[in-house]
Amino acid sequence: MKNHSAWPMWCVLAVTLLFTSVSMAQSQGEESADSRWFTMDAINTGLDDVPEEAKRMSPRETIRSFLNFTEEENYADAAHLLNLADIDPSEQATRGAELAKQLAEVLRRGEWLNASNLPGRQDAAIEDPSGQNPQAGQPRRNIELAALRVDGQAYDVRLGRYRVGEEDPVWLIMPESVSSIPTLYEEYGPSMLESYIPERFKASFGVLKVWEWLAIPVFLVTIGIVGVATYYLVGLIARVLPSGVSTIFADQIGVPVALIVMSLVTQMLLDYVVSFSAVATTTFRVLLIAIMAWGAGTIALRLVDTIMLRMTRRLVGEIDDTKPKDKRRLLTSLYALRRVIILITVVSVSVYVLGQIQLFESLGLSILASASVLAVLVGIAGQAVLGNILSSFQLSLAKPIRIGDLVIFEGQWCYVEGIFYTFIRLRSWDERRLIVPVTYFTSKPFENLSVKSTKMYRFMELTLHLSADISQVREKFFEFAKEEDSVIEHHKLLCYVTGQTEHAQTVTCYLMTSDPMAGWTAEMNVREKLMAYIRDEHPDWWPRDVVVISHHDIARGERAAPTSGQQKRATGETSESNDSSDSPDGSAE
């Protein structure tokens, strides 16, 4: 009995599960259908029949039909591309044509719209053969056509897909976007100046109107005059200010200030005087944002450079190795800080510009899809630049050289005057500037005469005759060396004979100096004094080549005694002479 009584319960449970599954399937089907379009009872009942020229099956067809109708000023047919559900049917014919005309002006001026960039599929699904887009292949029932801002508020113009009963779904401008058309028209509609333009100049010529081709050159010339006037005004202010750091700063910001003023004036003219088509407006907008960001960044960098210049003059003064090591290390760190500020500024300006022109939204997926290719191209093209940048940071961190160090680079004595991103500026002893790429500098051996201490041994060589008295030379060298202020550690003064030939000897004198450049001067002074002493007191100490033309030694001041052979020859000659004189014929009696 108990087994038979359980059958009704199992039957009820099975029927319930079946009913539930059928209901879920139906709800999923309805949800799936709703994700492809919006269901409506009727569309634009206050308008006439839809013209055959109006293609509304895909977003691309809808916008192309709308642009064709408005180009022909057929705004009544263009109204069929708008969803006028929020407007009373009795007013749809009048209001629809007016709103279509206003939207055409907004799209022409507000955003550069190209129907070919819109989806051509009826379901507006994204086609991505690479498969990297996660939304590829999924149907969409609304897409963004344009994103415009009015007084800081964002307004989207969107297309939606609508279906009435069993009819084919169509794409229309959504009611929410239709309601915002008047607000957008007030911002992006024709300016007051356009009301005075003759109709024949309003015809299209390429991507712009005829009057725009004529007005843009005048517009650019006007902006250029404003920029030149601003540049000279800043220069005049720089000359009026008292000489100093402020004058240097004002003199360096003439160009960026002029560009910023030009950008501001351009924006004011576009907002209140003239309104060009979206092609020109978009181009101007991108240029204005880039110029404004570049000008502000340049002024910030000039301010940093001016502050560094003031600190350099106050703390270090003239850049050389005579200043304390701590001050030169501080100046090197300031240059490293300048490079960090430049890097942050460039990155910030780039992000700001890209964010303002909204490149991330339109190009983000493409950039991600080709990131590896871009990385390879940037790595190859920017290898030298990136190598210089990394090398400059390496120099700033390791500090093998500091600002003001005296180095011998490729045989030239130079002071390190600046370490920048891609190059090092060296000041030679004759005030020339050597610009050396950072990677080239770090790949070559160089001698840093200031790395530990500025002290330096100097030496000079004198070539004297073998008869020179070295003790007197050494005594005079010590005397002259001690008279030089830059010669230090007098107990390290040395003077020795370091070489000898058959006619001369080499005398080398060593002296310790406080720094290399002063040591060079001290060496020259001591050399001149020693040469003057030998010239005036002991000219016979100079080396000389002896050519014997006589047995008389000029240096000794006496005649050498004849040898025995010379005496015999002289005696024989005398005897012969005497015999000849006694006998004219040469015979002896």
Automatic annotation (TrEMBL):
InterPro entries in the record: LSM_dom_sf (IPR010920), MscS_channel_2nd (IPR006685)
Gene3D superfamilies linked: 1.10.287.1260
Residue ranges, compositional bias (Polar residues): 563-589
Region (Disordered): 121-140, 557-589
Transmembrane segments: 213-241, 286-304, 336-355, 367-390
Alphabetical UniProt keywords: Membrane, Signal, Transmembrane, Transmembrane helix
A UniProt-annotated Pfam family: MS_channel_2nd
Superkingdom per UniProt: Bacteria
Residues covered by the Mechanosensitive ion channel MscS domain: 385-450
Signal peptide stretch: 1-25
Protein name in the entry: Mechanosensitive ion channel family protein
UniProt organism field: Vreelandella piezotolerans
